[in-house]
Structure formats: structure tokens, C-alpha cells
């Protein structure tokens, strides 16, 4: 259980695209990991997209409670309040090493970025273009580049995709490190390891 008394995230909304998929009323505290579970088509990705501000709720609100006050992640003022990881995306003409350099420039933490990508076994891939990597290598590169960034809330949509069991176990530990650094983590997943590692579950 988180020692914090002020939540990092409050979700009280009905979510969906045109039609209602579901309704959630929950809070997530700094230091907590919450897994979103359910069958394919149950709305896991839709809920996580809504929490991240990629999709506005059909009704109700999503609020991130950070140092700048209560923010709607879907609003311009809420930009940067949530780090959202979904399908890996890269600049196709940049090598993985160039992505690492760009991330170091944006975050201002070159040593941390280098250490993070090394932990994900990305260092041997630095001269490669993303299109030349396997799906697992792309996923590890993406996670290494994204998880070094910081925000009050981190959302992930099936981050275990293309990872073997050992790397999923490592991902669980890395998500715990993010939460222990003060983030509230919300992750849509099919992986039993992630569900077991979570502090709470939203079952759809």
C-alpha cells in the first residue's frame, strides 16, 4: 500500500469511442501499480488511452494531481502529466543510437538514458534502424527509451508484447522502480506476472 495520502490520479468517468465501453471510479496513489485486465475487446486499451488523455471520456473526468495542480491529461495544460506507452513508434530514418541521443537531449539526463538502454540490452543495436530489428528488439528499445522519462502518471498498453518470460519479469521490476520513484502506474495487460506484481486490479 502506498504511504501517500494524496492520489496521483483520479478516474471517475464513462469511457468509449462512440459507444459506451465501461465506467470506472477509482484513485491511484503515487507508488502504486494498477493492472487493467480483461478479454480482448473488453476495453483495456480504451480505458488506458482515456487515462493518458489520448481519448476524452464520454462523461465524467480524469485528473492528474501533480505539482502544478489538478490537470486534465487531455487538455493542453495537461501535456506531460502522463507518460503513455503503447505500440512502439520510432523515426524510421534514425538509428536506435540517434533515438538514444535525442532522448538524452530532451530529458537532459544522458547518463540515465545510456544506463536504461543498456539494462534493456539495446546497446548492441545502436547502429541499427528500427526496421532492421526483430519485434522483441523493437519493444525493448522502445521501453528503454520511454521508461527513463518522468511524470506523475505512467500508463502502458500491453507492454509485455513481444517479450519472453524473463524480460516480462524484468519489466515487472522496472515498473516497480517507476512506482517507487513516485509515479502512479496503470498498465493494461494479459501477463499474469504483471497482474501478480500489481497493487490493485481493474477487471473489465
From TrEMBL:
<feature type="domain" description="ABC transporter">
    <location>
        <begin position="6"/>
        <end position="204"/>
    </location>
</feature>
<dbReference type="Pfam" id="PF00005">
    <property type="entry name" value="ABC_tran"/>
</dbReference>
<dbReference type="InterPro" id="IPR003593">
    <property type="entry name" value="AAA+_ATPase"/>
</dbReference>
<keyword id="KW-0067">ATP-binding</keyword>
<dbReference type="GO" id="GO:0005524">
    <property type="term" value="F:ATP binding"/>
</dbReference>
<dbReference type="InterPro" id="IPR027417">
    <property type="entry name" value="P-loop_NTPase"/>
</dbReference>
<keyword id="KW-0547">Nucleotide-binding</keyword>
<dbReference type="InterPro" id="IPR003439">
    <property type="entry name" value="ABC_transporter-like_ATP-bd"/>
</dbReference>
<protein>
    <submittedName>
        <fullName>ATP-binding cassette domain-containing protein</fullName>
    </submittedName>
</protein>
<dbReference type="GO" id="GO:0016887">
    <property type="term" value="F:ATP hydrolysis activity"/>
</dbReference>
Amino acid at each position: 500500500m502506498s504511504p501517500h495520502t494524496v492520489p496521483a490520479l483520479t478516474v471517475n468517468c464513462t469511457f468509449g469511442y462512440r459507444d459506451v465501453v465501461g465506467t470506472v471510479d477509482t484513485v491511484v496513489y503515487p507508488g502504486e501499480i494498477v493492472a487493467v485486465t480483461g478479454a480482448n475487446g473488453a476495453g483495456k486499451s480504451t480505458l488506458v488511452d482515456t487515462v493518458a488523455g489520448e481519448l476524452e471520456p464520454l462523461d465524467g473526468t480524469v485528473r492528474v494531481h501533480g505539482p502544478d495542480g489538478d490537470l486534465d491529461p487531455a487538455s493542453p495544460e495537461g501535456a506531460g502529466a502522463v507518460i503513455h506507452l503503447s505500440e512502439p513508434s520510432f523515426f524510421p530514418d534514425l538509428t536506435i543510437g540517434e533515438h538514444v541521443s535525442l532522448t538524452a537531449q530532451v530529458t537532459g539526463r544522458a547518463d540515465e538514458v545510456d544506463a536504461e538502454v543498456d539494462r534493456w540490452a539495446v546497446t548492441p543495436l545502436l547502429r541499427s534502424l528500427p526496421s532492421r530489428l526483430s519485434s522483441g528488439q523493437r519493444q525493448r528499445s522502445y521501453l528503454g527509451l520511454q521508461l527513463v522519462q518522468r511524470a506523475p502518471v505512467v500508463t502502458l498498453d500491453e507492454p509485455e508484447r513481444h517479450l519472453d518470460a524473463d524480460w516480462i519479469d524484468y519489466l515487472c521490476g522496472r515498473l516497480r522502480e517507476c512506482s517507487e520513484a513516485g509515479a502512479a502506474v496503470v498498465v493494461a495487460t494479459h501477463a499474469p506476472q504483471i497482474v501478480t506484481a500489481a497493487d490493485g486490479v481493474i477487471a473489465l
